[in-house]
């Protein structure tokens, strides 16, 4: 447990150093809100409160996007309207969200295009032909 805490502390310090060097302090609230919404969603869903879970995800991710887009006041009004429209439909939204996550987990990271199998190549042995000074064009 202590090694894990040391690793997490090290990562947090590195990220804070990068934020300080490049003056990215405006990113910190959005970077905390989005994962915060996901964590609350997972916890509420685990204890069976699907409605609260979906609302927490909506508000966490929505506020993070609004902060990044600098669209706070009208965006909060829009989020409030969406939140009210989702009331009572959270279970359906959760089902769609779970299906989408499952589809992304099943999909390979990089899918190589499928091509037809190559025909076997015949290689002619050059030792059977007599050595001449003729050029063979391919």
Give the uncertain stretches in residue-range form: none
Report the biggest beta sheet as strand number plus sense, adding barrel if it closes. none
Helix-strand string: HHHHH
Overall 3D geometry?
Answer: elongated
Strand content: under 5%
Q: Assign the structural class, choosing from mainly alpha, mainly beta, alpha/beta, alpha+beta, or little secondary structure.
A: mainly alpha
Radius of gyration: 28 Å
Q: Mean pLDDT score, rounded?
A: 87
Binned, the helix content reads 55-70%
β-strand number:
0
| Continuous helix count | 5
Distance between the termini: 67 Å
Annotate the secondary structure layout.
Blueprint: H1 2-22, H2 28-46, H3 50-69, H4 72-86, H5 90-106
Helix pairs in contact: 2-3, 3-4, 3-5
